[in-house]
From TrEMBL:
PROSITE patterns: MSRB (PS51790)
Required cofactor(s): Zn(2+)
Enzyme Commission designation: 1.8.4.12
Protein name per Swiss-Prot or TrEMBL: peptide-methionine (R)-S-oxide reductase
Keyword Oxidoreductase listed: yes
Domain MsrB span(s) in chain numbering: 33-157
Catalytic activities: L-methionyl-[protein] + [thioredoxin]-disulfide + H2O = L-methionyl-(R)-S-oxide-[protein] + [thioredoxin]-dithiol
Keywords: Metal-binding, Oxidoreductase, Zinc
C-alpha cells in the first residue's frame, strides 16, 4: 500500500506563495550540533535534532485552538497555521497541510519497524513529526501532519481576541 506515492510528493499547494521558497535555507542551516545543544532545551534538542517524539497529550498545543501561526522552534520559519489545524484526538497537534509546501521536507522513515514519512523543517532540517494519509478524518487533504508541540511555537494572531465575527480573510 504505497499511500504516499502520489499525493505527498506530487502535491502542489495551489496557494503557495512564490516568496515562501526564498525563506528556505536561511538562518540556522549551518549550525553545529554543539550550537544546537546550547540553544535548545534538552527536550527540544531530543525531538528537533534527534528525531525524538514527545509523549502524547503532554505537549503544549495538542488541544490548542488559538488563531495564529506555528513557527519552527529551532529557526523560526513559519510552518503551519491554525487554519489547517484540526482535532485528531491523537495527543499531538495535527494539521492537514503545511503553511506552504516548500517550508517542510519529507523523508521516508522505516525505523521502528514502521513505514512512515517524516516531516522536517526545510530551513534548518529539524525533525517536526510525521505525516499520515488516508485515515478518514474528512479534512481537505485526508492527511494528518502529526507534529510534536515541542518542535513548534505558536505566534498568536494579533486580532485573535476580537470575538464574534471573523469576516476578513
Ligand atoms: Zn527550522
Amino acid at each position: 500500500m504505497s499511500i504516499f506515492g502520489n499525493s505527498i510528493f506530487g502535491h502542489k499547494a495551489p496557494d503557495t506563495a512564490p516568496e515562501a521558497a526564498s525563506a528556505v535555507g536561511g538562518k540556522g542551516a549551518e549550525k553545529t550540533d554543539a550550537q544546537w545543544r546550547e540553544e535548545l532545551t534538552p527536550g527540544e534538542y531530543h525531538v528537533l535534532r534527534q528525531a525524538g517524539t514527545e509523549r502524547p497529550y503532554t505537549g503544549e498545543y495538542w488541544d490548542t485552538h488559538t488563531a495564529g501561526v506555528y513557527q519552527c522552534r529551532a529557526c523560526g520559519t513559519e510552518l503551519f497555521t491554525s487554519k489547517e489545524k484540526f482535532d485528531s484526538h491523537c495527543g499531538w497537534p495535527s494539521f492537514w497541510a503545511p503553511l506552504a509546501e516548500g517550508n517542510v521536507r519529507y523523508i521516508h522513515d522505516r525505523t521502528l519497524g514502521m513505514d512512515r514519512v517524516e516531516v522536517r523543517c526545510a530551513s534548518c532540517d529539524s525533525h517536526l513529526g510525521h505525516v499520515f494519509e488516508g485515515e478518514g478524518f474528512g479534512t481537505p487533504t485526508d492527511q494528518r501532519y502529526c507534529i510534536n508541540s515541542i518542535s513548534i511555537r505558536l505566534v498568536p494572531q494579533e486580532d485573535a481576541q476580537v470575538s464574534g465575527t471573523e469576516q476578513e480573510n
